[in-house]
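hiii, so i know i said id send this last week but things got crazy w the move. better late than never?? heres the sequnce for the chain we talked about at the cafe, plus the structure i predicted for it. fair warning i was half asleep when i ran it
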Amino acid sequence: PSAILMEPNTGKILYEKNANELRPCASITKVMTLLLVMEAIDSGKISLDDQVTASAHAASMGGSDIWLKEGETMSVNDLIKATVIMSANDAAVVLAEHVYGTEDEFVKQMNIRAKQLGMNDTTFKNCNGLDEDGHLTTAHDVALMSAELIKHEKIFDYTLTWMDYVRDGETQLVNTNKLIRSYKGITGLKTGTTSQAGSCISATAKRDNLSLVAVVLGCSTTDERFTSASTLLDYGFANFSFASLQMPELGTVPVTNGIQGEVQAECTATAEVLIPKGKESAIKSEVELSEGVQAPVEQGQLLGKVKYELDGEVIAEYDITAKNSVKELDFGASFMILLRSLFHW
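okay and structure toks below
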């Protein structure tokens, strides 16, 4: 019903179907939960070794869980394992309470973070994705938060684990994402299933230098979500690649009233751009360079732009700047230049 394929580093959308349709997303919600947890770890607010005690509220969660009892203690590391691998609703709530005190406050921060990421159609009502009126998002918004989460490469330690244990080996965790055993290049990320949301997945994969995020929401079966996600990823890897951009010759720009009569132009550009495969030779570059500038010229001063086009569409644009500064030619500088010319300094 709803799907999107995105390259996460550029945000470029490679395929979409009803990608902005409001839908519940079940445990895909935990992508945002995990993002806030990883950010709290990176900032030093919490630690993987922290021992956290389950509240009555956390222990009351239904659906997929690890049967936490009120008062039971578990490390943040094990709670993340349970949240990612088993999609444990109770573990997600314990993490939320540990980071912001209460689930309500954590959910408030989830919605703030969503707006910061441009997830303008998302409203979170809980931290685990259990069906609740008004708890809605879109495939596009899920792709945005998934792209942000995978910037934290530590998450792959959990998303790529097929089987693990908590409680000193007493509780076995088996990953709900079957693609990690069958899809080449898979890196994660999160599955979700409820009666209202259907079967959902945000699947991330990387081959060579190309990363992809495929999101499908509302599938009727778990097999359909895995097949759909695999098909999207296959399409992306088969049809898109990064091409190296060749920087054209830039030359110099004349300087009026400067100690030097010209300034060297330079452009430090990203070396690659995402394009359809086989289109590399069709990329055209255009240099828009100032015909002249007035001294003084500051190093880094804007002198123009380099544009790259493919099939009439601008696919990349970079600033051309002054490589060095040029001082204004005042009386003192003019006098020194005259002396040098007279006495061959």
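btw The two ends are 78 Å apart (CA to CA). thought thatd interest u
miss u guys!!
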